[in-house]
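Severity: low
Component: inverse-folding endpoint
Summary: output formatting inconsistent between runs
Steps to reproduce: submit the following C-alpha cells with default settings.
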C-alpha cells in the first residue's frame, strides 16, 4: 500500500501545486512553488524531475497571465517576460539543489535544503525585478542603493520586500516540510537485505582511499 502511495506522490504534488496557484487562494507572496521545485528534484523520477515541474509552472503561469490580462494588468510586455524568465532560472536552481539530495536524506537536511532554495529564489527574482523593472518604478535606479532597495524596502505604496522575504521563507519551509513528511510517511520500509547492502557499500568506500586501487 505504501509503495503505491509513494509512486503516486509526485502526481499528488503536481495537482496540489496547480490548485495552489488559483488567484487569491493563498496570501500574497505565500507560494508552494519553491517547495514544489525543490521537492521535484528530490522525489520525482530522473526522467520527470526537470520537464514535469517546469511544464506545470509554465502552464500555470500562462493561465495566470491570461487572468491578469483580462483584469487590465499588462503582463505580456518584454520587460515582464524577461523578468519571468529569471523566475524559471531560479526554479531550475531549486530543482538542481533538490537533485543533490536523496529521498532517504534526513528530514532536517531536506527542510534546510528547501529553505536555502527559497532564499536563493528570493535573491534571484528580486534582483531580476530590479534589473528589468517591468513596472518602471523610479526607485529602482541601476545603482547599488537601488538594488539594495529592491531587496529590502521595495517601492512605495506596496508591502515591503522584507514581507515578501518573510512569506517566501515561511511558505518554502512549511510546504517543504509537508511534502517531505508525506514522502517519508508513504515510503516503503527498507528491507534488512537493502540495509546490509548499504552498509557493505559504505565499508567498501572507506576501505579504498582516493588514489588507491584494489589488487
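Observed output (run 2 of 3):
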Amino acid at each position: 500500500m505504501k509503495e503505491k502511495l509513494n509512486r503516486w506522490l509526485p502526481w499528488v504534488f503536481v495537482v496540489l501545486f496547480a490548485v495552489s496557484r488559483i488567484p487569491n487562494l493563498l496570501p500574497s507572496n505565500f507560494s508552494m512553488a519553491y517547495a514544489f521545485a525543490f521537492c521535484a528534484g528530490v522525489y520525482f523520477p530522473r526522467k520527470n524531475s526537470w520537464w514535469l515541474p517546469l511544464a506545470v509552472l509554465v502552464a500555470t503561469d500562462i493561465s495566470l497571465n491570461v487572468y491578469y490580462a483580462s483584469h487590465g494588468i499588462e503582463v505580456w510586455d518584454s520587460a515582464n517576460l524577461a523578468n519571468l524568465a529569471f523566475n524559471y532560472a531560479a526554479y531550475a536552481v531549486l530543482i538542481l539543489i533538490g537533485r543533490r539530495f536523496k529521498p532517504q536524506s534526513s528530514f532536517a537536511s531536506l527542510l534546510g535544503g528547501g529553505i536555502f532554495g527559497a532564499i536563493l529564489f528570493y535573491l534571484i527574482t528580486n534582483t531580476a525585478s530590479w534589473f528589468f523593472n517591468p513596472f518602471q518604478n523610479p526607485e529602482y535606479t541601476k545603482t547599488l542603493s537601488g538594488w539594495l532597495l529592491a531587496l529590502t524596502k521595495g517601492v512605495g505604496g506596496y508591502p515591503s520586500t522584507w514581507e515578501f522575504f518573510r512569506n517566501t521563507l515561511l511558505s518554502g519551509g512549511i510546504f517543504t516540510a509537508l511534502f517531505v513528511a508525506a514522502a517519508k510517511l508513504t515510503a516503503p520500509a527498507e528491507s534488512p537485505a537493502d540495509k546490509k547492502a548499504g552498509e557493505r557499500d559504505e565499508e567498501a568506500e572507506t576501505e579504498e582511499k582516493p588514489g588507491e586501487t584494489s589488487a
